[in-house]
């Protein structure tokens, strides 16, 4: 077991001053020793498997899936019950094509049958609890194999970052909610272990924008890892202040939110570098990543099985529900988990030469849709940012069917003509299906997890974080 894995619980309960001291001491240990032999062995395997043929990937995935089904039959009461109800045994599952014999696993089932989804013989001491953000509903508690969480999750991230040119030890600026800096007015903090500069995403405001520009220039990170909406907020304020890019990173890595084409263009134009996007989720069932050719997200087959199931209720043609099966978590196997996200399969091969199937991420079926006056879903994929250059960010807030409020942030150049253009575009797109109003705000409120969802809704079974709806009520 690696040095990093030992003592994590002790570290989490230390005072911040003690944590900083530990980081300084820990950073003096060579990276290979910190991560451990098993970690680097996994990474080396992944560096090879990314170049396997599609047949090799299919064979490997089917072998792992058969082993998982056998394990679930023997160890997980819920799956044995489900298979017995359908007169199935592990012998009925030869490949991914047989997975539809099992029903979908929903969040509601996980809430109701959580104990029955735990592997009986899996040691409780090796389990770790992961709490999902709750963006699409009530928070979900998932048990994971804490050793695999480190050994298997980390190498996938390292391989992905390598696609963008990152190498361990390169300095990286991080703007994500799970990295918080110290108290007071500080906007950033250095982690010497990973050579990362963590920036607060909660202090990005007009009065502090010079501080962010100065700290970025001082630390000179070669890479940025951020939520796309956070980085677009920062870029917008820097542009308002007539600030050119304070750094020229080699690449930007985005995560946790749907990366729109307009956000990609904004980031690439400002920093003058490519953007690489990571699609994943707290449930640890699927990963899809953007490669150096940016032709869609590659489904990472060594991590899990991704099924794309056509959804006729999706407003736009080609939309498929993402259903995923984890191949790495034996503590609480999730088989055919309905993620609530949508994608569109992409045909053909990628010029990068990797044989992974590709897809275009569309967002969440609920998170990206509105409910019209007839109870039908309406897509929000209209590109309002193309209507006027002075519209910065926006968010739909819906509290009743047939009506929506567009909450928008704008640049200082925004004027009556811009609002007229925006109203005309909305009226043309929404037609008679939805009434709307527009509210110009200083900023888009974020959830406790630091995200800025495109749609906040409490109709049609959708639930959003309480603090976000409280803000919408205040507006």
Q: What's the SSE blueprint?
A:
Blueprint: H1 8-12, H2 16-27, H3 31-35, H4 37-49, H5 54-75, H6 77-85, H7 107-112, E1 127-131, E2 141-145, H8 146-151, H9 153-163, E3 172-175, E4 188-191, E5 196-199, H10 209-219, E6 223-226, H11 228-240, E7 251-255, H12 261-271, E8 275-279, E9 288-290, E10 297-299, E11 304-310, E12 320-326, E13 337-346, E14 358-364, E15 369-371, E16 377-379, E17 391-400, E18 403-410, H13 416-430, E19 435-440, E20 455-457, H14 466-474
Parallel strand pairs: 3-5, 3-6, 6-7, 7-8, 17-20, 18-19
Antiparallel strand pairs: 1-2, 4-5, 8-9, 9-10, 10-14, 11-12, 12-13, 13-14, 15-16, 17-18
Helix pairs in contact: 4-9, 5-6, 11-12
What report would you give on this structure?
The chain is of the alpha/beta class. It has helices at residues 8-12, 16-27, 31-35, 37-49, 54-75, 77-85, 107-112, 146-151, 153-163, 209-219, 228-240, 261-271, 416-430, 466-474, and strands at residues 127-131, 141-145, 172-175, 188-191, 196-199, 223-226, 251-255, 275-279, 288-290, 297-299, 304-310, 320-326, 337-346, 358-364, 369-371, 377-379, 391-400, 403-410, 435-440, 455-457. The strands form four sheets. It has a twelve-stranded mixed sheet, with helices on both faces. Strands 19-18-17-20 form a four-stranded mixed sheet, sandwiched between helices. It has a two-stranded antiparallel ribbon with strand order 1-2. α5 packs across α6 (77-85) and α11 (228-240) packs across α12. The model is unreliable at 1-6 and 461-475 (pLDDT under 50).
């Amino acid at each position: 077991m690696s040095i990093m894995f030992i003592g994590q619980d002790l570290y989490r309960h230390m005072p911040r001053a003690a944590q900083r001291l530990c980081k300084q001491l820990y950073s003096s240990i060579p990276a290979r020793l910190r991560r451990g032999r098993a970690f680097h062995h996994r990474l080396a395997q992944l560096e090879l498997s990314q170049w396997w043929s599609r047949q090799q990937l299919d064979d490997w995935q089917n072998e792992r899936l058969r082993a998982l089904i056998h394990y679930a039959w023997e160890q997980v009461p819920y799956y044995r019950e489900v298979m017995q109800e359908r007169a199935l045994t592990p012998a009925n599952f030869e490949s991914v094509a047989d997975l539809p014999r099992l029903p979908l696993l929903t969040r509601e089932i996980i809430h109701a049958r959580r104990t029955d989804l735990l592997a009986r013989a899996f040691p409780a001491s090796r389990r770790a609890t992961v709490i999902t953000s709750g963006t699409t509903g009530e928070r979900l508690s998932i048990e994971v194999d804490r050793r695999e969480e480190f050994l298997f999750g980390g190498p996938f991230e390292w391989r992905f970052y390598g696609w963008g040119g990152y190498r361990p030890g390169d300095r990286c600026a991080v703007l994500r909610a799970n990295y918080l800096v110290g108290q007071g007015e500080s906007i950033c903090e250095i982690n010497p272990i990973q050579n990362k500069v963590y920036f607060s995403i909660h202090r990005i405001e007009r009065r502090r924008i010079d501080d962010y520009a100065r700290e970025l220039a001082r630390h000179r990170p070669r890479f940025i890892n951020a939520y796309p909406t956070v980085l677009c907020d920062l870029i917008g304020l820097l542009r308002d202040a007539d600030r050119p890019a304070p750094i020229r990173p080699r690449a930007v890595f985005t995560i946790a939110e749907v990366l729109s084409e307009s956000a990609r263009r904004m980031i690439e134009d400002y920093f003058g570098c490519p953007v690489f996007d990571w699609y994943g989720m707290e449930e640890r069932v699927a990963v899809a990543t953007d490669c150096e050719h940016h032709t869609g997200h590659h489904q990472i087959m060594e991590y899990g099985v991704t099924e794309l199931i056509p959804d006729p209720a999706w407003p736009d043609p080609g939309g498929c529900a993402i259903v995923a099966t984890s191949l790495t978590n034996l503590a609480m196997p999730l088989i055919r988990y309905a993620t609530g996200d949508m994608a569109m399969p992409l045909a053909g091969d990628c010029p990068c030469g990797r044989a992974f199937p590709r897809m275009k991420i569309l967002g969440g079926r609920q998170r990206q849709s509105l409910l019209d006056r007839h109870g039908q879903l309406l897509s929000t994929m209209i590109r309002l940012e193309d209507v006027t250059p002075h519209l910065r960010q926006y968010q739909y807030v819906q509290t009743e069917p047939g009506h929506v409020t567009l909450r928008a942030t704008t640049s200082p150049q925004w004027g009556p003509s811009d609002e007229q253009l925006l109203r005309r575009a909305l009226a043309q797109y929404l037609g008679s299906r939805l009434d709307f109003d527009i509210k110009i705000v200083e900023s888009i409120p974020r959830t406790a997890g630091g995200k800025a969802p495109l749609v906040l809704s409490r109709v049609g079974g959708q639930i959003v974080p309480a603090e976000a709806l409280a803000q919408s009520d205040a507006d």
